[in-house]
Amino acid sequence: MLFNDIDFDVYFKKYPDAKGYFGKYGGSYIPPELQAAMDEITEAYQTICKSRKFIAELRRIRKEFQGRPTPISHLARLSDKIGNGVQLYAKREDLNHTGAHKLNHCMGEVLLAKYMGKKKVIAETGAGQHGVALATAAAYFGLECDVYMGAVDVKKQAPNVARMKILGTRVVEVTDGLQTLKEAVDAAFTAYCKEYKDAIYCIGSVVGPHPFPMMVRDFQSVVGIEAREQFVEMTGELPDAVVACVGGGSNAMGLFSGFLDDPVDIYGVEPLGRGPKLGDHAASLTYGEEGVMHGFNSIMLKDENGEPAPVYSVASGLDYPSSGPEHAFLRDLGRVKYDVVDDDETIDAFFELSRMEGIIPAIESSHAVAYGLKLAKTMGKGSILINLSGRGDKVIDYIIEKYGIR
Fold first, then answer.
1. How far apart are the first and last CA of the chain?
2. For the residues 296-315, what does the mean pLDDT come to?
3. How many angstroms separate the CA atoms of 150 and 84, rounded?
4. Does residue 169 sit in the same domain as residue 314?
């Protein structure tokens, strides 16, 4: 099946299907006792998302607490430096409260938990932005919060660890395996298995068992809805291309959802890290194969035993050995092109955006910036909208320690 065979006017009504599948990807591969808990979440979400009261409350929170809508900025100096007439724009999710897109789904997930009568929310985090966002939402609604984080990321993302603790969250340091995002997910999922009657596992991306890929996408779609309207108002036309980084893929699905039915080229950017050798990158959609992990079927990087392979990225939020099932589906359809940038290109883009535009981006977002710059140089004209999914305050010390000031 190709994307020309899909009617994107009704895409969001058809995908995922009732069992959580985007084509052959997605679903729910979890123990029966947990499946009952997931069914409860699905039923509650499908009820509450149609509720006028829930929608009104979420809109109020976005406006009065999160600071939405976030703006689009014209990156005029960067565009002029490229010099071929291509214009670069950024959707400024770094200006969303807590500094990234993650609060978009965390406020929705915790509002759902409160509606269901749960007392606690549990999550994993890599770069710390999901953890901070969930800690913020839990404090806002008055729920307990446990966040699991790999020991490597605890050290790399120290400012976000401090923010979570200040907000009243218990940060659980995970010392298994590579001590990064995959291990944090494993630990959080294990904890949830013991506490599912009183807690919700608030997954931090468009991954995991159904309904989370659908639910997180729906909450993040506000990014694409805003961006499309803002871009047309600003320029009088649609962008020629939109670009976002992809780890699990929540910020990307948020942006992409606003443009799937438009004549717009869509690019998802994966982390090539140190290079294409297994263990040196986390580009699952580019180098992976079909497989099941963490309760869902998608494209994943596997080792020689068929288990999730070790992965690496300079960006803590992107070092995950799989990607959201909807991304795998859109890749197979050909609607979204997935490509890679490496660490060096990413860090160069980090400094370039900082110096040229006065915006210090997250390392995750710098992958999208790097690809946007490369793409612009291949185009003779047109415009590119980059999803600036988060700000870089949290990694300044790490960047200076590892790379110095370029």
1. 46
2. 96
3. 43
4. no
25-42 pLDDT tens trace: 999 999 988 899 999 999
Entry pTM: 0.94
- Examine the pLDDT at 318 and tell me if it is beyond 90: yes
Catalytic residue among 102, 120, 182, 302: 102
pLDDT for the residue 272:
98
Q: Is 364 a catalytic residue?
A: no
Catalytic residue list contains 389: yes
Overall domain count for the chain = 2
Nearest to 223 by CA among 201, 242, 236: 242
* One domain for residues 248 and 359: yes
Asked whether residue 205 is domain-assigned, the answer is yes
> For residue range 328-377, what is the model confidence (pLDDT) as tens digits?
999 999 999 999 999 999 999 999 999 999 999 999 999 999 999 999 99
- Domain end among 212, 247, 268: 212
pLDDT per position as a tens digit, 255-285: 999 999 999 999 999 999 999 999 999 999 9
Q: Give a yes or no: residue 326 inside a domain.
A: yes
Do 239 and 198 fall within a single domain?
no
Beta bridge partners of 150: 174
* 336 and 283 part of one domain: yes
pLDDT digits 0-9 by tens, 152-165: 989 888 888 999 99
Q: Cα–Cα distances in Å, from 72 out to 69, 150, 238?
A: 9, 33, 13
Answer whether residue 202 is part of any domain.
yes
- CA gap 261, 333 in Å, rounded: 13
Per-residue model confidence (pLDDT) at position 129: 86
Do 165 and 249 reside in the same domain of the chain? no
Catalytic residue among 120, 352, 389, 394: 389
- Pick the catalytic residue from 124, 183, 270, 357: 124
The H-or-E segment that residue 26 falls in is strand 25-26
Query: Is 119:200 a contact under the CB 8 Å cutoff?
Result: no
Length of the chain equals 406
The CATH number assigned to the domain holding 182 equals: 3.40.50.1100
Report the distance separating Cα 48 and Cα 215, nearest Å.
11
Instruction: Please indicate, yes or no, whether residues 239 and 114 belong to a single structural domain of this protein.
Output: no
The band of 2, judged by pLDDT with boundaries at 50, 70 and 90, is low
What domain range is 157 assigned to?
Answer: 22-62+102-212
Say how far apart CA 93 and CA 389 lie, in whole Å: 5
Active site residue 93: no
**73/56 same-domain check:** no
CA distances from 5 to 2, 9, 334, 335 (A): 5, 12, 11, 11
